[in-house]
Write a structure and sequence with these properties.
Strand content: 15-25%
Structural class: alpha/beta
Strand order of the largest sheet: 2-1-11-10-12-13-14-15-16
Number of strands: 26
Radius of gyration: 25 Å
Largest sheet: 9 strands, mixed
Number of helices: 18
Helix content: 25-40%
Length: 566
């Protein structure tokens, strides 16, 4: 195992420390770049204004509800979201970020389950609020982020102005409120339906431990501009792309939406970004398509990569100059791309590293606030989820003959339990405080966590060996004809055996390039069977796919864009 020193980080005990240290250490650095209207210019927000708005809104909150109240946020990523979050955690009570894509009934169910006192919402979600209004039994106040004349709601601008007046009159109930780092101040719902989703209780010790550990492994500072493209209700984006950037003095540029990502990247010229793999694949496939249509360009790129690899042996880095055109796609200044949320193709990581980006993956769960393991900028393995964070211990429980078992973790970033759910809490947190992740894998000789699949998805073959669907799905995903796949075990009554079955939704654009626009189902299935045959050649006998099913539509997904398995 390499013994590379960690980066120095500032000690913080709670989220008030995070913002107040930001004011003290990086007063001149804009905290956000946002657009006041679609298609307009990016406008900077100073750290001083952000801090003042947090204190103003928090003071107003505490004028309406007692300390310890729960405040939910239902909105797209916008400046008011960031203010509301810290105005809640830094003295008022517990913040409940909600998924803006959820249907009405699920939002209502979560408001009731979380016992929410105030709902802060965007005008874009007014139809949902109209539905829950009067039905959500605990909600006392509805605050609209956009000005409204509806007397059921309070306008955010009026609410924050009231807080400013209270502050100027000497009201210190919020700014001097005690913060207990061990108390639940963040309540997050995991993906799933209302009946299945769990309400994860996090405290500020969890978040602060994660921030300090994460940035001791990966270097980000005040000179970075971070592009925020993922939903903020996910703890991945919230901790790493929001709170982490406040902590490190970074500027956050707020993307207007996924359809504007390319435009906004060119406008804001960010240096770092958090993505899920499917987003980077979009850029990767776009580049590969251009290369496939221009053999001269492809040859030039291949030669450039060979040259840069040779020069790097002598610590000469010319990648930004050699691949300037590709860097312009990312705004010209991008240096760091962090991926999480799903397995990543190592070949794709290597390609982006070869052309000059620090391109790394991490591994986390909401219950870990969220990061559990992370590849370092100075020590990484493209096939691994990462090295365990220094704030926690990670080990493999009951490894099998291949060394594979369930990852369990213990440390300051591990959650408090599931809200009002002692049964699921007891199943996830054992009596010694170890969190059972449900993820299977092993730790290699260098200390990297290698994930092989989810415990609940494992298929047990007739010989008793474990088959990990994710491993086979990953191999299928490397083929250009495969858009999505789900591997499952289907019982064959006639043979009293488990048939490993691959259900494949193909990439029809690639299929039509080969079979023509009028491709028939029989031809598509035959082509997919050849894909499966190629994958089977890389698998042991008990893992081989025995049955192929063609699917003509995308798989159903949850709001995190993960395929729902049945």
């Amino acid at each position: 195992m390499k013994n590379i020193p960690l980066y120095e980080v500032t000690q913080v005990n709670d989220l008030r420390d995070v913002i107040k240290n930001r004011v003290k250490n990086f007063p001149e650095n804009p905290v956000f770049l946002h657009k006041e209207k679609k298609g307009g210019e990016f406008v900077p927000v100073s750290t001083e204004k952000y801090d003042h708005d947090i204190d103003s809104l928090g003071t107003a909150f505490m004028h309406y509800v007692p300390k310890g109240s729960r405040i939910a946020i239902l909105a797209e990523t916008r400046y008011e979201w960031y203010v509301t979050y810290l105005a809640t955690t830094n003295g008022t009570g517990c913040v409940v970020p909600l998924d803006k894509e959820l249907p009405n009934d699920e939002v209502l169910g979560m408001l009731d389950r979380a016992e929410v006192d105030i709902l802060v919402f965007s005008g874009s979600k007014k139809d949902v609020v109209d539905y829950v209004y009067g039905k959500a039994s605990s909600v006392k106040y509805y605050i609209s982020m956009d000005d409204t004349t509806d007397d059921r709601f309070i306008s955010y601008s009026k609410f924050i102005a009231e807080g400013e007046m209270l502050l100027s009159d000497g009201d210190k109930t919020f700014v001097e409120a005690t913060i207990d780092p061990e108390e639940m101040t963040i309540l997050l719902f995991t993906s799933g339906t209302t009946s299945k989703s769990k309400a994860v209780m996090l405290c500020q010790r969890n978040i602060c431990a994660n921030l300090m550990a994460m940035f001791s492994m990966l270097y980000i500072d005040k000179n970075d501009v971070f592009m925020s493209v993922l939903p903020l209700h996910h703890t991945y984006e919230c901790t790493c792309g929001f709170l982490g950037q406040i902590y490190r003095g970074t500027t956050v540029a707020i993307c207007e939406g996924l359809r504007y990502i390319t435009t906004n990247i060119k406008e804001a010229k960010p240096t770092a970004i958090l993505m899920v793999p499917v987003m980077l694949e979009m850029f990767y496939k776009g580049i590969q398509k251009k290369l496939n249509s221009d053999p001269k360009m492809a040859k030039k790129l291949k030669t450039g990569i060979k040259l840069s690899r040779f020069l790097l042996k002598f610590k000469i880095d010319v990648r930004r100059k050699l691949f300037a055109q590709l860097h312009e796609t990312f705004g010209g200044r991008m240096r760091l791309i962090i991926l999480g949320g799903a397995p990543v193709n190592p070949e794709m990581l290597k390609f982006f590293q070869d052309i000059g980006f620090i391109c790394l993956q991490g591994y986390g769960l909401t219950e870990c606030a969220p990061i559990l393991a992370l590849n370092r900028d100075v020590d990484f393995n493209d096939r691994a989820a990462g090295l365990p964070l220094p704030c926690c211990e990670v080990k493999v429980l009951e490894p099998d003959q291949d060394g594979i078992g369930e990852f369990i973790a213990k440390g300051d970033n591990i959650f408090l339990g599931y809200f009002n759910d002692p049964e699921n809490t007891a199943a996830a947190l054992d009596s010694d405080g170890w969190y059972h992740t449900g993820d299977l894998g092993y730790i290699d000789k260098d200390g990297f966590c290698i994930i092989t699949g989810r415990k609940k998805n494992v298929i047990i073959a007739k010989n008793g060996r474990n088959v990990f669907p994710e491993e086979i799905e990953y191999l299928l995903s490397l083929n250009p004809y495969v858009a999505e796949s789900v591997v499952s075990g289907v019982h064959d009554d006639a043979k009293d055996d488990i048939l490993i079955t691959a259900t494949i939704f193909p990439d029809m654009e690639k299929i039509e390039e080969t079979l023509g626009k009028e491709a028939k189902e029989e031809g598509i299935i035959k082509l997919l069977e050849s894909v499966v045959s190629e994958v089977n050649s890389k698998l042991e006998n008990y893992k081989k796919i025995k049955k192929v099913q063609y699917r003509s539509t995308e798989f159903e997904k949850n709001t995190s864009k993960k395929i729902k398995r049945y």
